[in-house]
Design goal:
Layout (H helix, E strand, L loop, with lengths): L11 H8 L3 H12 L8 E5 L5 H8 L8 E6 L14 E5 L11 E7 L7 H14 E14 L3 H15 L5 H11 L6 E2 H11 L2 E9 L2 E7 L6 H4 L11 H11 L15 H5 L7 H10 L12 H15 L8 H18 L25 H8 L1 H20 L22
Parallel strand pairs: 1-2, 1-4, 2-3, 4-5, 5-6
Antiparallel strand pairs: 5-8, 7-8
Length: 417
């Protein structure tokens, strides 16, 4: 019989228990943890609820919140026969990506479901979950992931198949693996955690692991509590000079004290501080940071003007409501930077492919300039250069102020960084 989840609808709990070692322990832990988050007048959502067992047991375990509501969602219609709606419990056949009821959630649970969401939709769904949670809510989920090391991945996979052979024939295992080729889109743990933090989740903590199956809890905290989990997040009011200064200090965009090849690597990538900022705040820091190399008469008028408009954009909640063309420039810049952030190479990966020794004058480009141009860091700066030049060309008369002292350098502007 060809593998299909619908074939196991009547006994799916037994099937997944035989497929994932320690699943019963994971389920028990999720139910116990739920008591910390379920609240009255909120909704608890189970994405990919299958038979609905976890959701029902969470409900039974939450007598402290009798006014809570419970919703289970799945796309497999065969599970409907296992569902029974009650006063505050209902089950839906829905595609969670299109479902419009994700709001006022104190807890979202997802057991081995996100790996079946197309990768192009996964980040948007994670953000949808985050936005739907109330402050203090949580996302508890489990996924199968790749090991960071291919040799370890091979060993762990072999041990996993040894376990599965205790419950399934080799043909059943192979048939399922072939079917999952077009269904399961696994990711690696590092990327998953970075995505969660970039969206805004804090206190992301592993709570369970068996082979390459991992369980996490991720919190949605009020902004003023972020420092309790990520101690170096700035609490200053958005748009203030203090917020800008603290954001840049947290980011530590480049460790300028080092004179080695490492100098080109954003310091945040070595400390994981990058994840302390949301995507728009990353862009804000890139726009407002000083490059640390301008002093005295070396002030470039294009950069001064670009940073001034960027500060206006930041202080106005990143909006120019009456100037759509100007708004589009910043929106496009955000899109360009995030495309680099989420690329396979990112900011850091491609630096390892740059030779340690490069010719000094290849077509007039120095070794340092070539390294900058090839790294993600350099690509960011190119986009920032282009934005500032565009702002100068089209909005150069935006501010009418006395000329600064010292006067800006009146010269062709190129790569101030």
């Amino acid at each position: 019989m060809e593998f299909s989840f619908s074939n196991y609808a009547e006994n799916f709990d037994d099937h997944i228990g035989n497929s994932i070692r320690g699943y019963d322990d994971l389920r028990s832990d999720v139910i116990s943890l739920s008591k910390y988050f379920v609240e009255n007048d909120t909704t608890i959502l189970d994405i990919g609820c299958s038979q609905g067992t976890i959701l029902r047991q969470i409900r039974e375990n939450s007598d402290h919140a009798p006014k809570a509501s419970y919703v289970g969602i799945d796309v497999e219609e065969a599970f409907q026969e296992q569902w029974t709606d009650e006063d505050n419990l209902k089950f839906l056949i829905e595609d969670v990506r299109k479902w419009d009821g994700m709001e006022n959630l104190s807890l979202v649970v997802s057991m081995f479901t996100m790996q079946f969401i197309p990768e192009r939709d996964r980040l948007d769904l994670l953000k949808k979950i985050y936005d739907g949670l109330v402050d203090g809510g949580a996302f508890i989920f489990a996924e199968k992931v790749f090991s960071n090391n291919p040799k370890v991945d091979d060993m762990v996979s072999a041990l996993y198949y040894d376990f599965k052979k205790e419950h399934f024939t080799e043909k059943e295992i192979l048939d399922k693996e072939e079917k999952l080729r077009c269904l399961a889109k696994l990711t690696n743990e590092d990327l998953l955690l970075k995505q969660l933090r970039s969206i805004g989740f804090r206190g992301v903590q592993q709570i369970w692991r068996n082979f390459n199956f991992v369980g996490f809890v991720a919190l949605k905290l009020p902004r003023e509590q972020w420092g309790e989990v990520e101690s170096d997040y700035t609490k200053a009011p958005k748009g203030s000079d203090e917020h800008t200064s603290q954001s840049l200090d947290n980011l530590k965009f480049i460790d300028r004290g080092e004179k080695s090849r490492e100098r080109l690597i954003p310091y945040s990538k070595k400390t994981n501080r990058w994840e302390n900022l949301l995507p728009d705040e990353v862009v804000e820091s890139i726009l407002l940071e000083s490059n640390g190399q301008l002093s005295g008469h070396e002030i470039h008028e294009v950069e001064m003007h670009g940073r001034k408009i960027s500060k206006e954009w930041s202080g106005n909640d990143r909006k120019f409501p009456s100037e759509p063309d100007l708004q589009k420039l910043f929106d496009d810049f955000i899109e360009e930077i995030n495309a680099i952030r989420w690329s396979d190479q990112g900011y850091l990966g491609d630096i390892d492919h740059i030779p340690n020794t490069l010719p000094q004058n290849t077509s007039g480009i120095t070794s340092k300039e070539l390294k900058n141009a090839l790294t993600g860091e350099g690509r960011v700066r190119v986009h920032r250069d282009a934005l500032f030049q565009n702002l100068w060309d089209n909005y150069g008369d935006r501010y009418k102020e006395p000329e600064p002292d010292p006067l800006p350098v009146k010269k062709p502007w190129w790569k101030f960084w």
